[in-house]
Amino acid sequence: MNENNNILQDKFGRDHTYLRISLIERCNLRCSYCMPAEGIPLTPKSHLMTYEEICEIAKTFVKHGVTKIRLTGGEPLVRKDFPVVLEKLATLPVELSITSNAVIIDKFIDVLKLNGVNKINVSLDSLNETKFKHITRRNEFKKVYDNILLLVKEGFTVKVNAVLMKGFNDNEIIDFINFTKDLPVSVRFIEFMPFDGNKWDMSKMVSYAEVMEHVNASFSEGEIVRLKDAPNDTSKNYKIKGYKGSFAVISSVTNPFCDSCNRLRLTANGQLKNCLFSSSESNLLTTFRAGKPIEPIINKAVSAKLKMRGGMDTLKKLKEPKLHNNNRSMIAIGG
Question: pLDDT for 241-255, tens place per residue?
Answer without folding.
Answer: 999 999 999 988 887
